[in-house]
Amino acid sequence: MSALVDIQGLSRSFGRSPVLDRIDLRIEAGEFVALLGRSGSGKSTLLRVLAGLDEADAGRVTLPKRRSIVFQEPRLMPWKSVAANIALGVPNARASGAVALALDDVELSHRSEAWPLTLSGGEAQRAALARALVREPELLLLDEPFASLDALTRLRMQGLVRELWRKHQPAVLLVTHDVWEAVTLADRILVLEDGRFRREVHVALNHPRRRTDPHAAALEAELLAELGVEQADHHQHHNPHSERIEP
Ligand SMILES: Nc1ncnc2c1ncn2[C@@H]1O[C@H](COP(=O)(O)OP(=O)(O)OP(=O)(O)O)[C@@H](O)[C@H]1O
């Protein structure tokens, strides 16, 4: 059966430096994939190609038509109300009630007519999430969507994204620097390094995932080590779900 996202041999260079080097990636419908990698490893470049904001130099890319992206910043139009921002580019979204449903989904109905500049950081990101959801994406691309939020708001947003994913069941590709975020949310975690996927981990842990679960904590430590972050209390547990991908 064909996957929702099927990428084969995708390469992208800027000038003479290759950023993505013959990458293969399949994502099934409804799958939640997290993408980790050091700064500059090409995560956003990959997401931009998948969003159609950038083109690959080489490779075959099969993508669903309905895709949405949420960035680190909300990128709302300041001269339009929250509801009008969410309706942008989606014909009849207000009349059909789709905007109201999306606002309800992100618990922002009471701010429907507000101006974006009057929203808190968390509210603005929830509006950006509603704008993505109103398109009923089969593939939801999230480029560090919680990175600029405070820790408490970030936790709430992670819970909200998981709830919305269960409700709407899009495939999700989440770029994050936060290893624990990847461990708590994803079915599968990929680590990008030097333009290739160096590691693929299938996360078969029950939800909610907690750091008190030794398997979850060991996986986090292992991924942190992979990214070059050593923890003081780092225990080396072998994770049977994790495979190293040699170039
Ligand atoms: N439009 C561009 N022109 C030139 N170089 C670019 C362009 N976009 C990205 N790059 C370069 O490609 C490399 C990968 O960038 P990218 O933003 O994809 O990394 P990233 O993994 O998302 O990093 P971060 O985690 O810091 O956001 C970087 O070296 C960056 O400077």
UniProtKB/TrEMBL annotation:
GO terms for molecular function: ATP binding; ATP hydrolysis activity. Pfam families: ABC_tran (PF00005). Residues 5-219 form the ABC transporter domain. It comes from the Bacteria. InterPro entries: AAA+_ATPase, ABC_transporter-like_ATP-bd, ABC_transporter-like_CS, ABC_transporter_ATP-bind, P-loop_NTPase. Keywords: ATP-binding, Cell membrane, Membrane, Nucleotide-binding, Translocase, Transport. The keyword Translocase applies. SMART domains: AAA (SM00382). Belongs to the ABC transporter superfamily. This is Aliphatic sulfonates import ATP-binding protein SsuB 1. It comes from Tianweitania populi. The lineage of its organism: Bacteria, Pseudomonadati, Pseudomonadota, Alphaproteobacteria, Hyphomicrobiales.
